[in-house]
Structure formats: structure tokens, C-alpha cells
Amino acid sequence: MLKCRAVWKKLAPLARESSTLCRQSVRRAGLNNGRPVRVQVAGMSSGPLGEGGENKLYFLLVAAAGLGGVAYVSGFDGNIRICTDCVSLVFAYCLSLLLSCIVTFMQSLPADSTSASQKILSHAPYLLIGGGTASFAAARSIRARDPGARVLIVTDEPDLPYMRPPLSKELWFSDDPSVTETLRFKQWNGKERSIYFQPLSFYIHPEELNSAENGGVAVLTGKKVIHMDVRGNKVKLDDDTEISYDKCLIATGGVPRNIQAIERAGEEVTKRTTLFRKIEDFKSLEKVSRNIKSITIIGGGFLGSELACALGRRSTESGLEVIQMFPEKGNMGKVLPEYLSNWTTDKVKKEGVKIISEALVKSVSYRDDKLEIQLKDGRLVKTDHIVAAVGLEPNVDLAKSAGLEVDSDFGGFRVNAELQARSNIWVAGDAACFYDIRLGRRRVEHHDHAVVSGRLAGENMTGASKPYWHQSMFWSDLGPDVGYEAIGIVDSSLPTVGVFAKATAKDTPKAATEQSGTGIRSESETEDTAISPVASSAPAPTVAEQKDNYGKGVIFYLRDKVVVGIILWNVFNRMPVARKIIKDGEEHADLNEVAKLFNIHDD
């Protein structure tokens, strides 16, 4: 056995080295403990031994290594009279080298051979650009009218279509420490749901869309449409993939506006600033808020006030300092009449938020591990992190290549009453500037509008030819106890009349969702209509200014003595009544009588 010892002495260090190399290569290739796990090789598919490509590959590797080991040992002294330990050692050595070579070859293959872009279809009968609420509503509508339709949604986000409102509302009130991973939340009514409209199983893979017998909806995530050829009916993605279409929806939404003082402040400031819009922004801000001492929200609108209340409640538990600053005199100052804006500001303060009103940002800098916000009136605010919640800019990046018109007053793609920008191109959601037959040309940035405009665009893409007449609503909740729903033009610069009553335990967002069974109130109410509202028999309420008694009520916004906007303050499930009042467009001599239609004095 002298030669056997010589073999052992010669090969032992090489075997150890190659074994290490083999293990590293196996991990890179996607093999676990010697078991194949879908190593994607062009022309191969998974399956049991004898069917799947990677199992065949593994079997061949083992067989080849075994033959190589036998041949090596046989060639050593002309026969196989060596102990089994040496045979095993030689076998392992050859297997290591062979696996390493194969893995290196696989890794050297061109990326295009396994990339998703090569597998996606080159043509989509219905192409939806954008993966938000409007696109999902359109896809659902298309499939409802054309059950065999093949719909492709292309989104630059890594996520499937999801609802945005919970990002600044319910998710922040979750008791689940893993909420940033599960993205599941309890609605105000206590029921749990996911932020995603549908689970992964609802969709089909893009490469299977053309072959699906009954069609379906596919989502291509992480891909951005960068060019649109309207004449050629095709688009180009950011990886140079081209997809042609028969009909196309643009639902690109918007991007958060930033403050010029932050934009020019440099990297140290920008990396400590959140522009809140997407799931990744929620995850990032949630993590940041647990690891800093102070956070400042710039903006007093819907998003800024919701985030301020959410973070303010957390401050009582963690000691986090929450500051909210805005140029107006009070929260929601551009929307609410002054007396109600002041009341709302007091409410936000009670949630643990420090309010800095009439604040105009002059500059932002980073010094001594703190952000310093210099206001134009000389005030200086020091903080650890900034959230800029100062509005949304419609995403019209495709306008130039597509030759589509952008509205100079409101922004967004200019469309007709049927939401068409061209004969086979529609626009819905935040990016659409549409003509309202009652209130004129408008652009709306709210969830309900995305639902309704997306749904209508989908219907029209299948031949419905319906005009957009629906008055979409929007809502905001300052926690589970105070909320409001609004419709039409709600602008604090307009004359207003407010009618209020004493609130009961039923007059909260939480109670409203318990009654309706949904946390996204617009999804249920948009199907309702109000043909003949029945007025309450209760005595006429008093027109406000009832000091600090704004438990629930109705605020009417007037233009030329006609109601053009309505806010329902802690009054829920009455939106069809408000919609009909605006649709009728009549002058009202006594708005106290009109307020009776909302039954605000009923217990």
C-alpha cells in the first residue's frame, strides 16, 4: 500500500483546497447541500430526475466525476488496487474541479440568456404604464368587460399594485413590530388586511401572458417606460426592451415635490430627508423614527398632518420630538376655513406635535450632527431628520416622446371627457388633467379619483365611450377619532358656511369603518347613488361659529352662490348626498335646510 500512501500524500491538500472551492461555487450557483435549486440555464427546466434540466446536469456532474476518479486511479499503477479512502478522495477531488469548471462556465454566460426582459412578451393588447391604484382599477375593469383580455402592467417600483393611503394612516398605528415586512395592518374597525390589492397568485407571469388560455393580468416590476412611439404603437423600457400595444393607459402618477433649500443644501442634508410616497419610503421613515431624537415635517396639508399625528403618538412612547412647520396659520390652512384649521391645529398639538406656523424655509444645513433649518423670519430649528410633504408633481416624462399635451395651468396630461389623449391612449389618476362637466378642467390627486378614473379608462379601452362625470371624493384621518371626507373644490379662499352638531360615539373614522366593513371608504361609497335624499326631521342647526364645538358637521364651499365643494366633518357614509348637491348646481337660499339632508342631528 506504499503507492496508496503516496496518492494520499499527494492529493490530500489539493482535495481540501478544491473542496473549499467547490462549496463556494455551489453556493454561487444556487445549490444547497448538494441539492439543485433551480439553477436557470438557457433551454433547461425544473422537474424530477430524468425530466428537469438542472437534475440532469447534476447527474452528469456526478457520473463524470466518478469516471474521472476511476480513470485517474487506474492510470496510477495500471489497476484499481487502492483502498476505498483513496478512491473517495480522488472522486471528491475530480468532482470539485468539474463542478467549479461548470459553475464558472454558467456564470460566464451572457446575462441576456437568463434575463427576465428576454422572456417577457413583445406585444400586449392592453398595456398599462404605472403600477398604482389607477392601473389596477383599469386592469380589473378591462377584465370585467373582456374576460379573455391580456393585460400587462409595467411599473418602475419593485412591488405589486398597492394602496397608498395606509402608508400615512393605519400602518403607523400597528402594534405588529414586523409591519414593515408584512405590510398588513388593522383598519380602524379592527379587521386586518394587506396593503396589496391582490396577492401574487392573482397575477400571471409576463412570459405566460400570450399563451394563457383565458388571458389575465401580468405585472412587470422594476422596469420603467422611458420612450413612447405613438405612431408605432410601442414603448421602450429602460433596459431597451420594446413592447408594442393595441391600447395603452398612462397612469404614471406623480413624484413628491422637494424644497429648493433642501435641493441645494448638499448630500448630508438630502440623505437625511424623506420625500414620502412609496412603500420603501414608509419602511425607511419607520426605521429612522426609531433611531433618532427629533424629526421635522415640512408641510401642513393632508400628508404632512397625517404623518405628524402618527409620529406624534409614537413620541409619547419613545420620547421622539416631532415638529411640524408650514407657511399657513394652521393645519390644512389651504383647505379648511380658518376657525376649523385652528381647531385642527390644536388637535395635532394634543397628539404630541410641536407646531411652527407661518414658517418659510430660507436654508437648510448640516452642522454638528444636526440639521439646521433657518426660517426667513430668523427662527432656527434643529432636528435629526426632515420629511418634506409639500405636494406632488404629476409625472409627465413621456409627454415629449409621445407628443402629448401637458396642461399649463394644472399640470398633467390633457385629456378629453373620456380620458383620451389619443385614439388608443388614455390617462387616469394623478397624471390626468380632465374636463369636469360641472366644475371645469381639473386635476385630482386622491385615491378615490384614481379608482374611478382608472375604472372608467378601463371601460373606455374596451369600447364603452363613457364621459367622466363622477365627482370623486377624498378623505383624511387624524387618527381613529377625527376624520373628514370631501368632494368638489374645497379651497379656503372661497366663502364657506359651516353647520355643526354635537358628536356621538358613532361619529369617528373607526365607527364608520365598522359600519361599512372597509378601511378604504371610497371603494364602497363610489358605487352608491343618491336619487332622493330624505331630510332629517330634527330642528335646524345653527350655522357655526360655535366656539370649539366642531364634533361633526358639514362645510359648504360657495362660488357665485352655488355649492362647488363640501366637507363632511366626522360625518360618514353620506357622500352620495353631497355628490348630488354639487351635480345639481343649484343656488340654495338656506344651507341650514340643505344640511338636514346629512342627518347630522340624528343620534
Can you walk through the features of this model?
The chain has 603 residues and is an alpha/beta fold. The chain folds into 3 domains: 123-163 and 200-255 and 394-462, FAD/NAD(P)-binding domain (3-Layer(bba) Sandwich), CATH 3.50.50; 257-391, FAD/NAD(P)-binding domain (3-Layer(bba) Sandwich), CATH 3.50.50; 473-598, FAD/NAD-linked reductase, C-terminal dimerisation domain (Enolase-like, domain 1, 2-Layer Sandwich), CATH 3.30.390.30. It is built from 17 helices and 30 strands. Strands 3, 4, 7, 8, 9, 10, 22 and 23 form an 8-stranded mixed β-sheet that branches. It has a 5-stranded parallel β-sheet with strand order 12-19-13-14-15. Strand 8 (225-229) and strand 9 form a beta hairpin. Helix 1 (2-29) runs parallel beside helix 3 and helix 5 runs parallel beside helix 13. The longest helix has 28 residues, at 2-29. It starts with a helix and ends in an 8-residue tail after the last helix. Residues 19-82, 107-118 and 522-547 have low confidence and may be disordered.
Gross morphology is globular
The number of distinct helices, counting runs of at least 4 residues, comes to: 17
Query: What fold name goes in the CATH topology slot of the largest domain?
Result: FAD/NAD(P)-binding domain
CATH architecture call of the largest domain: 3-Layer(bba) Sandwich
C-alpha Rg (nearest Å): 31 Å
**Low-confidence segments:** 19-82, 107-118, 522-547
Helix content: 25-40%
Distance between the termini: 100 Å
